[in-house]
Amino acid sequence: MRYKLLGTSGLRVSELCLGTMTFGENWGWGATRAESRKIYEAFVEAGGNFLDTANIYTEGESEKLLGEFIATDRERIVLATKYACYTGQDNPNGAGNHRKSMVQALEASLKRLKTDYIDLYYVHAWDFLSPVEEVMRALDDLVRAGKVLYLGISSVPAWVVAQANTLVERYGWSPFVALSIQYNLVERTPERELLPMAQSFGVSVTAWSPLAYGLLSGKYTREESKQAAGKVGRLASNQFRFNGRAERDLTIAHTVQQVADEISCTPPQVALAWLRAQSQGIIPIISGTNASQLRDNLGCLDVRLSPEHLQRLDTVSRIPQDHPVDFLADEGTRQLVYGGIFNSIDTNRHAQLLNAIQKAEAK
Q1: Is 57 known to be catalytic?
Q2: Annotated catalytic residue: which of 57, 121, 122, 220?
Q3: Fold held by 3-214+266-303
Q4: Is the distance from CB of 43 to CB of 298 less than 8 angstroms?
């Protein structure tokens, strides 16, 4: 296990993050306390120090279990949790991004986790109601009070992070150093705005659901092809997970399986290796309902995909760019904007445009 600096901070976090949404059985499908401990211990034994939870995971049970597990190793662990989502309280201010929701959620998390501080505190989802000035000032107050060390945000438009981090630079407040988003071979839309924004601001990306809710785990591609049609139908009916794109998504899953077979590893390892190859700033959040699944995910650290395999995976999962990037990538537009010398300018500032050009030329 190697380590990365989190965003623009000096905080060292493991190159994989352990997601603990599966810790606890309150949702009817998670890991038992004993199995959760085995998962935690397997991750720590592999060198992992970066843990992710949230106040709503398994109705608070995830935080309680983590508090128990990290008690003797708190200084080594980089602990991330989140606030903003509804926890079932009969309270109009029991959710949202605003200061009251933030403070009461943090105090409750600290009690469940049995700790005095949170290493990385995420805004779990943007509510479009709370002023960004209120949110960032309130978060900075928590940092100054020593209850939170670093700040992150999840499930948010790119412009919100850009606005927030520009604002805090002006006032000397604490910035977001981490962005948590769904990113995988099936869901590549963050490449349009979120990833370029994160790169521009030096924000690390923690990628949740790197196996696309299990679609890339191999369980949809192990059976005989005659059963595939039935699986397509079931996937198509699952609008929450796959948004009606079942045939495309299953094709991606089959390609992942083929690559895994060719290099003698597992589909999750291929999917995670592809994700890690996209950028040094991306940290996959791995998880599982048992220690065996977790150890299999950890095996991605030993997988290096060849350029040919990366190209195959990119081709089958590629998405179109949106306006105006597709317009700006057009050769005619580049002639106008750069006066015909685009290819003679040496800079890394137009990385997003270069990526769009490469994708357009590959079609």
Answers
A1: yes
A2: 57
A3: TIM Barrel (3.20.20)
A4: yes
